Amino acid sequence: MRVEGIVQGVGFRPFVYSLATSLGLGGLVGNDVDGVFAEVEGPAEAVTRFLAQLEQDAPPLSRIERVTTKTITPNGTSSFIIAPTQSGGARTTLVSADSAPCADCLAELADPADRRFGYPFINCTNCGPRFTIVKDVPYDRALTTMARFEMCRLCAAEYHDPADRRFHAQPVCCPACGPRLRLLDAAGKDMAGPELPGQSGAGQPGAGDPVAAAASLLRAGQIVAVKGLGGYHLAVDAGSESAAAALRARKHREDKPFAVLVADLAAARALCAVDPAAQALLTSARRPIVLLPRNAAGAAGAGAAAPSVAPSVAPGNRQLGIMLPYTPLHHLLLRETGRPIVLTSGNVSDEPIVYIDAEALAQLAGIADAFLTHDREIHIRTDDSVARVFRGRPALVRRSRGYVPEPLRVPLAFARPVLACGSELKNTFCLGRGQHAFVSHHIGDLENMQTLRSFTEGIEHFRRLFDIEPQVVAHDLHPEYLSTKYALDLADATGVELAGVQHHHAHIASCLADNAQRGPVIGVAFDGTGYGPDGTIWGGEFLIADLAGFERAGHLTGVPLPGGAAAIRQPWRMAAVYLDAACPAGIPAGLEVARRNEGSWANVLTMARRGINAPVTSSAGRLFDAAAALLGVRDVINYEGQAAIELEQLADVAERGSYPARITADGPGGQLRAAGADLIGAAAADLMAGAAPATIAARFHNGVTTLIADTCTALRDRCGLATVALSGGVFQNQLLSGAVVSELTERGFTVLVHSRVPCNDGGISLGQAVVAAARDQLAAG
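Above: the chain's sequence. Below: its structure in token form.
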């Protein structure tokens, strides 16, 4: 038989061995480049039971996609063995994602009688590092970053014992033979440790204990860089305002929220509301950061002992990003610290997470006071994943550690191998083969050489790991995106075929693939920026689309983008142009947004009216920016989407009022145009009349909801489609997306939303890949 899927590095061979021997079957099991192969022989009834239990009782980290069998002539063997790994041929095996410690390992970690008590690198076949340590396949120790650690006698005995939980666990180790912790100061000199052979583990208090020493530093308000699975994090006491503020200042991250690491579910509930769906996400082996609503004053029953979170951790935000420990080291550190800690990516703002020790010491020395590090190499950098619950389902905001590189099955087969290069912001890339789409870990914004290097190195690693040589390279239409330039350079160098994919079509295709659909649908793609084939900047789009193609059926009415990128950084500029469009007789006197920016207001309007460095945009993101600046939420942003995020936070969720917006057509059957300026004009009138900003923010959101629903209804009347796909970063706004789904559902639509990949640009690469595949299929007839 052959077993395909995620079946290497998850204890599958020892599982097959144990199952076969328990049923008295003879034969063998082994790894090769395609997955797991096995031969079994014995009584027919036992073989039948074996095949049934193979899928029913598979190891927890495995993902079986297909089992194929054929009958062979028995050779009379009654023994069962694990065969040597076979490494030749084309590789089709899958690689498991990194996994949080299992219950058995945690029990050993906390048991003073266990030889791995307090050991920060404890793992077994059911948990531990996988993707971040794998250099090549098949997944064997020699092809991981554990290769340099020779197993001691006791670990080797476990590794070779079919009855042991660590039978053929490739990262198996202990304090005597495995990686060791060190605590270094900012200059790279030892402060405590290293952990020595013969100690029970670095988690025990003591003068030489790096974990205890690091915890003392955190309690004292210091910043500690902690080496995790996919890179370095920066940690501070989450309750210390001075420490959180210092981290912001040193990291140059003014407002964007930090994630908070808590010890367990009880600690999470002391800070936030945790429903059953959120609990399942928090406690899953994938361990993403989960965005949760804050408790008003601690959880019920938590009382005065409930921990506080410093204001600078997530300033002005109704939510916190909470995660539970996903390495043994995290468990030990929280046990010693005794309180929640901030855990944010180890980088300077806008650069990729640091994962190489020497680079960490060089780049983070001006931020961290100390480094809690170790000597197990990280092969591929991988940021934390971010998720939330939307209408009872998981919805990924950033798909990375814990999910990658496990593939997504897509609703059509790739006739030729595809590389999709993704977008400029929140970049991921995607490789497609068969019915698998391998969406990469989060790369980040392709705006500097460090991130571009991470992008190119990641593509090389995935191509090698999955043995995929792309014949088609899909890319965004924007000629200045670094991802587009990479695709063009690759085509020049190798002659591969290029497939340009419009940004918003890729968004809708991504949503279709996420839902295993092929279309056609009414696609609503609302985001900040996307290159339009007509030379304008799209971003508030209504498409009639399937995987192969699209028609632009409607959009927000275009307005100038005065100063180009400057208008994205300064939302007050969008307030100016939207007010100018909404009030042709003149902007009302007395608006605070005009007063606050009076020094540049007239010049910006002149620029917009004359079309000087003011390209036309239909961007929904810029419409939200205009509303935020009008209401005094934010005139200048420090990170992408900040104004819209804070506008959502401001809105009174109980308000049911709504602003109307005209929807017109460019002649019979022409494109529909929805007047976003009507919403801004109505909001300004309410503001001048004394309405509360929270009320206006809610009415604006409700107006956008009605605008979307009315446009979709008009398109249904035209084309008969009753399924709507929602995509684009604007739909990360839960107030908006929840209202839109409810309104469309009430009007009889089927609504598709994202779950497995983000609705933001992190899902673009998947959309590009399936569009390229669909075009291939269409061309083949």
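The first strand starts at residue 2 and ends at 6.
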